[in-house]
């Protein structure tokens, strides 16, 4: 059976990949081997406990399931998640570094730290602690900025995208912490101290210990089956809440989802809610309303509305812009103003991230100053395509005629239940 070393790339399905750190276990649950990584690597907004996690080197086979993670209330000191892994699929040694031997709870300014090599090389990367302080970082996968307290700020910046979650060792092979990001402006790699992870309140006082070898008594978690291949589909599941209504498309041969619980699919796609509208009470009276998901794994515990068809979801997105935001009566609006409404604030990283995301998804056709008139179908279609693809993290599967049907029927008041 194939296996990976700690340091291999891992991912939550359809989310940005990161790096596996090292193996630990809680002393009161010694039969579970836990793989440490950065929370923002494996916690999209819709993540839940027991969701499967994969390694890029072992495709179609989950290596484990989400077990627990740190909280982001107030100002966090750690951004960590633990994956309960199948002991047959991972070994404790870190590529080119070996397994850590102990915890270094008191790193000092000037200490040299080591991180696994860049892919294709054998020599570990080295950096030096220059400061211990606070840092603010934008997490693209979460579309929000996180302020971290008491991090190790290391020069030079030897990490890049995808390194989050990697274990960081000192010269004696002791575990100092975990890579949580990079700071391009100051050329620094940001490392969360292992003390902030071990002593985090999320564990309720439970103690963690390193696994330098894989104990013989550890057990595998209940793992979901591998994804269905060859064009077949996963059996439909009922929505988490709400009445059971037939899913479908209002346009002939249009795309739709019949499984709002399939967490291998981005939430905006699996819920027939391409704008990823969080549930609010006005949506209960909307045509096509089916129910809502359970709270996701984000700080805000978002609950997403489920619609019977994607066209109903498009119509509610248009209703949000035209009626709830008032753009239907106020005339043309700019992308920047729309981003402010979506972010719920006048400025800041969240606003900037929406603008940048929509611009990228539109192929740079939309900018902050682009004007949108909701009476002009081509402008609405272009905006919808960009926003829906941004929310899904990939091109939207909706056909143009589905999108146009949704907002045109909303204007005309012709949507079926």
Question: Would you mind describing this structure in some detail?
Answer:
With 417 residues, the chain is α+β, with helices and mostly antiparallel strands. It folds into 2 domains: 4-210, Thrombin, subunit H (Beta Barrel), CATH 2.40.10.120; 267-332 and 373-412, no CATH class. The protein has 9 helices and 20 strands. It has helices at 39-42, 194-198, 267-270, 310-324, 327-330, 335-343, 349-361, 377-392, 400-412, and strands spanning 4-6, 9-11, 18-19, 23-26, 34-38, 52-55, 62-69, 80-85, 90-94, 112-115, 125-139, 144-155, 167-169, 175-183, 188-193, 208-210, 289-292, 305-307, 333-334, 371-372. Strands 3-2-6-7-8-5-4-16 form an 8-stranded antiparallel sheet. A hairpin with a 6-residue loop joins strand 6 and strand 7 (62-69). Helix 4 (310-324) packs across helix 9 and helix 7 crosses helix 8. The chain is globular. The relative contact order is 0.13. The model is unreliable at 226-245 (pLDDT under 50).
Distance between the termini: 51 Å
Gross morphology? globular
What string gives the helices and strands in order? EEEEEHEEEEEEEEEEHEHEEHHEHHEHH
* Rg calculated over all Cα atoms: 23 Å
Domain count, please report it. Answer: 2
Q: Could you name the CATH topology of the largest domain? A: Thrombin, subunit H
The count of DSSP E runs of length 2 or more, i.e. the number of strands, is 20
Overall pLDDT confidence: 87
Could you state the oligomeric state of the chains shown? single chain
* Secondary structure tally, helices: 9
Helix content: 10-25%
